[in-house]
Amino acid sequence: MRATGWRRNLALTLLAGVLSTSLAAQGAPRKDFQIALDIYNVVMNYDRYSIFDDVTAHVKDGNATLTGKVTRQDIKTEIEKRVKKIKGVVAVKNEIGVLPPSKFDEELRVRVAGTIYNNTAFWHYSTLEKPPIHIIVEGSKVTLTGTVRSDTDRKLAQSLAMQAGAGNITNKLMTEAEARQSLEK
After folding, report:
1. S-S: 54 plus which of 63, 68, 144, 176, CB 3.0-4.6 Å?
2. Do residues 99 and 137 touch, judged by C-beta distance below 8 A?
3. CATH architecture of the domain with range 2-98
4. Is domain 103-184 annotated with CATH 3.30.1340?
5. Overall pTM surpassing 0.90 (yes/no)
6. How far apart are CA 125 and CA 117, in angstroms?
7. Where would I find the beta strands (DSSP E) of 95-132?
8. What are the C-alpha distances in Å from 170 to residues 120, 121, 134?
9. Which helix (H) or strand (E) holds 93?
10. Each residue of 98-110: pLDDT tens digit?
11. What does the pLDDT look like over 56-112, one tens digit per residue?
12. Which residues make up the CATH 3.30.300 domain(s) of the chain?
């Protein structure tokens, strides 16, 4: 299963590269979609970005707005710095929130992650270099983000988070099909 996630990430990277090269050869300006793919790759390849962080980028006319939550200020700062270097990015508005330090929240993050990723139904996700389910905990409120294969996986992840002691859960997980549809818009 590890190869599937690796192939998907490679395909996105190659797609971004092919589109950029093709547009550059034609002298055409970079489009927002290619910039968004480059931002996705920058975020995913940042070594300190983990399953406890969630960053989303919206690009309009080369202006990138970064949103989401991260566990540390240096992650927010470094992602912004890296995004500013991407070809075609005109400006970056960094609206990424930094989660306040909390021993209880940290323990809950680890418990929820362990309960989800140690479940046999999610082993194939846990073997990926960058597991796709992100667990954001703020003030004991849990938000699940990222992608899963099916609606069954989405519901099971929420159920497992509840078993780990998360009482207040927002489930923003998307199936791979929903994520594809969202990219096409």
Report:
1. 68
2. yes
3. 2-Layer Sandwich (3.30)
4. yes
5. no
6. 7
7. 97-98
8. 23, 21, 12
9. strand 91-94
10. 999 999 999 999 9
11. 999 999 999 999 999 999 999 999 999 999 999 999 999 999 999 999 999 999 999
12. 2-98
